[in-house]
């Protein structure tokens, strides 16, 4: 059996070796400085070699390393082009590829979760996985459904059977513990990139993502909220147990493929629908889809956006907090004092520390350009420019950011928003994002 626990020693060794390789490259860089080689050349060489080793190891792993790689890959658009270009394909692979479980292991999990007669529930089951993710893999099958096919139609349908890797929980925790030691590597690739909050959040959500019955509950809530929706398609859940989830099969083009080779029309359509989903779900379903990497979405032949993974969701029964929309609208209108008052009330700014209201407005307005205009095209160049503006220690924006806090209640919304923007920039998608906010974001009054 080649399940996760048996590979734990090898996987941990690979992760542990990463900082050693990084240390060696840093020493190499210092040696070249003595010879007078330009520092920017040294930096670029260290960045590229670090990225090559990091992405290579992450791509070989299941468990937490792959989960982290998927989360990080949505930020690929913010990496410097000379680093992002050679490794874009490696990052994308993290979203949909992993070594498969042997058929015998798959059958054992199915027998444990569905009962010894599990085969009787399928007309056909393909032992070769159709896709793999961080904690499980997906098989295509034909489900025997007595309740389906009224009017004399067939009583079976194509399904996706998601099967959790044995030992996935222990592997996730072990990998994330190792990855938490690698912050220096990511700063070498992208100065200012702090991965620790992302790792903390991933650890906190492991328990939820390991429970496929909980995922089924979330998917059913989304499916009910978007039933017969002309733009968003949520596949029906047919059966669920703690480690097996069976849903309708979704036929469509993965967003990762559209990012690589899609037409402008496909990119724009996918971007618009992603924005619609993430902004409307809290109001319509009381939930936020919290895993916005391209592997979780398909562009269907009829133009709808299919969503296929609900392992990570945030429960928002009251919808998106109204202050987010209200403060964004104040910033677009140029009301510096109103912005300061709103941010203080929500805990983004200290109640006692003075702050330059105009400087704060100057800090925020470039981020809001996509919703200040009637239409906007997200691009990698725009995101890289914003990342450079916010991450450079010498920039006024960086200095001002040190006066801001991120209240815990807004952590998930912030992370999902950044991840969604990362995907929109990978798609280079143009859409009327302001109108989408006006429709779905509480407090975001129309801006003239």
From TrEMBL:
GO terms for molecular function: kinase activity. The keyword Kinase applies. It holds the Pfam family ABC1. Keywords: ATP-binding, Kinase, Nucleotide-binding, Transferase. The keyword Chaperone does not apply. Residues 93-340 form the ABC1 atypical kinase-like domain. Belongs to the protein kinase superfamily. ADCK protein kinase family. PANTHER family: COENZYME Q8, PTHR43851. This is AarF/ABC1/UbiB kinase family protein. It comes from Micromonospora solifontis.
